[in-house]
Each structure stands twice: as C-alpha cells, then as structure tokens.
Write a structure and sequence with these properties.
Order of helices and strands: EHEEEHHEEE
CATH topology: Phenol Hydroxylase P2 Protein
CATH architecture: Alpha-Beta Complex
Helix content: 10-25%
CATH superfamily: Monooxygenase component MmoB/DmpM
Structural class: alpha+beta
Largest sheet: 4 strands, antiparallel
Distance between the termini: 10 Å
CATH class: Alpha Beta
C-alpha cells in the first residue's frame, strides 16, 4: 500500500482534494495530517491543485515505510511502492 502524508493546513487542502478525485485513492486523517493512500501509485497533478511552487514543494510531510517519491517536480507528485 502506498501512503503519502500532507500537513492539514489550508494551503495543502487542494493537494488532498485533487488526490481524492482518483477513485483508487482514499484520503483520511491521521493526527494533523491528510493520509493519502492507494494500492498502486499515487499521482497528483500540480496544475490541477492550483498550488504555487513554494507550497507544492513543501507539501510532503512524509511517506509510508514501503513507499518512495519517484517524481516531485513542477508537473506532478508521484509516490509508488518500493
């Protein structure tokens, strides 16, 4: 299972909302974080979030032990299982 954690603050809410648009992704909360989970890869398009670059590049709080970030650039954030 792939999991991405994003701090639950107003600036990061669009990241969780766009992730939740994918039927294979579930978005919940763990403490002060959005927990974004999927059985496969998680891919979030930056432009769809409307996030500015500073927010985009600072939105990731962590990933699960079995996951790693394979893309985090101006276009997308992709997290996959190792």
């Amino acid at each position: 299972m792939t999991a991405l954690y994003v701090l639950d603050v107003p600036e990061n809410t669009p990241v969780a909302k766009v992730a939740a648009e994918d039927a294979a992704v579930t978005v919940g909360r763990v403490g002060p974080y959005f927990e974004i989970r999927a059985d496969g890869p998680i891919v979030i398009d930056r432009r769809a979030t409307g996030c500015r670059h500073a927010v985009w590049y600072s939105c990731v709080a962590g990933v699960s032990r079995d996951s790693h970030i394979t893309q985090h650039d101006k276009d997308a954030l992709r997290v996959e299982v190792r």
